[in-house]
Design a protein that fits this description.
Rossmann fold, alpha+beta, elongated, 2 domains, 356 residues, OB fold (Dihydrolipoamide Acetyltransferase, E2P)
Length: 356
Amino acid sequence: MSVLLDVQGVSKRYGAHQALDAVDLRVSQGEFVALLGPSGCGKTSLLRAIAGFLPIDGGRIAIDGEDVGRLPAHRRPLNTVFQNYALFPHMTVEENVAYGPRRQGIARADARRRALEALAMVGLENMGARYPRDMSGGQQQRVALARAIVNAPKLLLLDEPLSALDLKLRRRMQFELKHLQERLGIAFVFVTHDQEEAMTMADRIVVMNGGRIEQVGTGPQIYRAPASRFVAEFIGEANMLPFVRQGDVLRMTGLAGLDIPVGELPVNGAAPMRGTAVLRPEDLIPMPGDNMARAPRIDARVTDVIRAGSHTMVLAQSADVLLQARMPGDDCGLAVGATVTLAFDPARLHLIGSAS
């Protein structure tokens, strides 16, 4: 697929605060990309810079090969869906959606036809005569989407548009929004702080921290092969195990000298000399069976058992490390204070090297 959005070296500073630090990002035609990160990481600043609402200090933003850096927001070939939807309360739903085409000088009849077509795409074809105040949060969100797609933009920017919805509705809208994006073939850039939302919807996830991009990849890539300690800890839960390499052995320094032969690791001979090994909780198995008889084992004391319905999280202390193990179901057979043996497959470790 060809590149639609090309962000090169974009920077923005607010006094002493570097909101964006030489950010590079490319988005292809028809791609769904999520900007993910904690508050203050730069994801909304990047979205606003692309939209034209935030002037940048340096770098270049191009859409479909055209440098749009000097174009005002209303002249860029994109549309934005805001967190609060920004619907006109004095206009009907149909008038809200037809507003964009009317501003472009399109005749009233044609603007109305396009508005009705856009409303049909989001399942609101029979609600054009209503006012936003008479609609639920999910319906208002769909109106905002219809208004954003009615002019067939090349790029659609979405600034946490689902955050005001309750959990059940938000999950349903995630699937509906993804299906709409696939049907339209429009590139979406979606800002969220919700990891599950990004994993559910995006083709690629851009993890940001401190105004920089830490990693770009698919959900499985950033979960299984995080590029940094920040990504490993931000995406899901993780056991972070410090190690040093001694010849052909990896020694887990916080786990009473647990040694793992380098040949059993996924990187084999390329293991770094020191750093952190990432082990996801579902890969740490309490009370291992015969099929893991030769796996590395850790003795620990259970400090907490958290039942979450579909799974149970077991927290256990071993030497200086607090370990997390996730087990299916709501009865793991363990109690606080019990001694447990934990095992794992070394091939499930992901190594992050350290320079020091």
